[in-house]
Amino acid sequence: MNCEDMKVALIGLIHGEIDEPDRRLAEDHLARCGICREDRERLEEVSRLLRSQRAEEDAEGFLFAGRTAAGRAPRRAFPVSRLALRYAAAAALLLVAPLVILAAANTRIQKDSQGWAVQFSLLPRAQGGVSPGAERLTPEEERRIQAEIDSRLVRHQQELLAALDERINQSRRLTLADLARALATQEETFSAGIRSEREQSLRRSDAVEAMLGSELTRTQQMLGVVLAASQPPQVIEQ
Amino acid sequence: MGALSDEQLLGRFLGGDERSFELLVSRWQRPLFSFACRVLGRPEEARDVCQEAFLRVFSRADRFRAGGRFSTWLYQITLNLCRDILRRRQRWERIMPDEAGASLMEGRLQREAASDAESAEGVVARTWQRLRLRRALAAIPPEQREVVVMKEFQGLRFREIAEILDCPESTVKSRMYYGLVNLRSVLADTEKAPAGGRRTT
């Protein structure tokens, strides 16, 4: 492989898209040729720069928000929306919390003849202190236990949901209150603005009226003078 | 629904299911926009190109070669539209030297940067770096830029790119080689900061 062939081979090497025989030939050449080794370093540098730019812009969602690799699914750690993740987290919490509580309520630590023993169970322990599993439960018991678990789960979910509802309502009330306050301020400024506007225009129209009045009197006076000058003297005497 | 391949969706669309077309659009509009944006260097033109590309898919879906890859076809359509625009722009710029595009990009970069909460110096350095890269990308010959964008920004494999461009893989790699070399030399030329100076941190 000569240096000219290496151009294509280097690109294949850098991006890991090269046939095995070609790769070996290229590596052989690189071992012998300092110029091509330098060439590879330079190419890698630019390629890295481009990729870091892409990663940066991906992370920021700058201009090309949500660009995808190979144009398929969006390149995210999880290919689901953030909202969906949030819901999933809430659901997981709802499921796990009662289990943890059940487990805590039914785990027992005791000291017996052999030393300390921790009995861990999701279910209420069977009567008589027999470890779970050692005793076959009758279908009736199983049903009862299942019903108990179900009812606890449901109760717990309901409690959590109620708490969630409460939080939502609270924040909604807050938001509404904020909005109302903002609206009131807005209205106040607006009406204050209108008031001052009206006052100003009233003042202005007063001024205009006064000006007009004085103009009018002056005009009348001038008219009087003009009339006096144009009329024969006897008219004035009358 | 998400498990359906692009080709399956196109098939359903041809069978009269318009919802499949919407899915294709929502799946592809972003990658396609980013692709066109980098090839053209101007978001507003890229938007038009994407719209036109989807219109063509819509009206010519029946011409899609069975057995082929939808993404290849879509990239081909988009690339042709981009090339048309670049040709037209070249003709136009021979008459009117153009500044608007670059300044538009720059304005956007600065706005984006300004809204950032981090230190001004970091923003300046990053913005400058980004601008430098975009300019460099715009400065290399289009056939090299196409390959660089498809490889480094779209993450396609050389085989796919060769298919899209309808040329041998070695040609693609060769263009990639010269593209990177040219990018490097343009970047080296612009190493110095713009008027005002870049402070290194």
Describe this structure in words.
- The complex is a heterodimer of chains A (238) and B (201).
- Chain A has 238 residues and is mainly alpha-helical.
- In chain A, 73% of the residues lie in helices and 4% in strands.
- Chain A is built from six helices and two strands.
- In chain A, helix 1 (3-14) packs across helix 2 (20-32), helix 1 runs parallel beside helix 3 and helix 2 crosses helix 3 (34-60).
- The longest helix of chain A has 92 residues, at 139-230.
- The termini of chain A are far apart.
- By secondary structure, chain B is an all-alpha fold.
- Chain B has three domains: 1-92, Orthogonal Bundle (Rna Polymerase Sigma Factor, Chain: A); 94-139, no CATH class; 140-190, Winged helix-like DNA-binding domain superfamily/Winged helix DNA-binding domain (Arc Repressor Mutant, subunit A), CATH 1.10.10.10.
- Chain B has helices spanning 6-14, 18-40, 43-60, 70-95, 100-115, 120-139, 142-153, 158-165, 169-189.
- At the A-B interface, helix 1 and helix 3 of A face helix 2, helix 4, helix 6, helix 7 and helix 8 of B.
Q: State the largest interface.
A: A-B, 31 and 42 residues
Instruction: Provide the gyration radius of chain A in Å.
Output: 45 Å
Helix content of chain A: over 70%
Distance between the termini of chain B: 49 Å
The CATH class of the largest domain in chain B is identified as Mainly Alpha
The helix-strand sequence of chain A is HHHHEEHH
Low-confidence stretches of chain B: 195-201
| Helix-strand string of chain B | HHHHHHHHH
Gap between N and C termini of chain A, in Å?
A: 130 Å
